[in-house]
Amino acid sequence: MARIRQRISRRQYTTVAVGTFAVLLGVWWAVTATGMISPLFLPSPGSVVARLGELMATGDFFSDVGLSTYRVTVGYLAATVMALAIGPLVGVSAVFEAAVEPLMDFVRYMPVVAFVPLTIVWAGTDDIQKFLIIWMGTFFQQVLMVADAVRQVPQPLVHLGETLGMGRTAILTQIVFPSAWPRVWDALRVTLGWAWTWLVVAELVAATGGMGYRINVAKRYLATDTIIGYVLVLGILGLLFDQAMRAIGRVMFAYQRVR
Q1: Would you say the pTM of this structure is higher than 0.70?
Q2: DSSP per residue over 3-41, as a string?
Q3: Which CATH architecture has domain 44-256?
Q4: pLDDT at 78 > cutoff 90
């Protein structure tokens, strides 16, 4: 019997992952080929690819992808830099935790979508408004996740530093933060997915470009091939960014055998 969480090779992992996508693609093709669902509601894979090809030929596709990637990168990095400055302090200081964590909990339960009209009033309709939406949807969650990662550092490690006569600053910089960093990295990787989600929300309203904007325009004309095509592209971009962060994590934390 296989052990729980038994590791498999990278080749096996990739084969299984690709196989899953292949099965889903096959089901999609079979459903559309048999005419079970009208192309208006679910176009075939070939129709979606052909539509994306048309958008690539006009240059709209690359313009939309570039603009959306730029927006999510700036908004996500702004949130990440701020969360990395605040989160560790929340994790190590009870006073700072009392001052910040309840506020973070309070704000993170407010639906970001409800702030879209306000962000337009505050920042207009240019990229600053898009950055703000992505920041709002990412920052507060990041602070709490980073703080939690810091709090999960085993207490015996801290006691070891105290036994060795290390000061508070040395314990934080040489023991606590390095030990928490792999979990912090995982938190950043997870929240990157949220940033891509909030990008679409930001671009659905008061936008003149980007993938979310293109989806919104396609909706008016029931162009489901365009909608599904851009949704798939969003998924592919998110997967590429996620795998890039995982690859970086494997290098940075090779000693922990991060997958």
Answers
A1: yes
A2: PTT----HHHHHHHHHHHHHHHHHHHHHHHHTTSS-TTT
A3: Orthogonal Bundle (1.10)
A4: yes
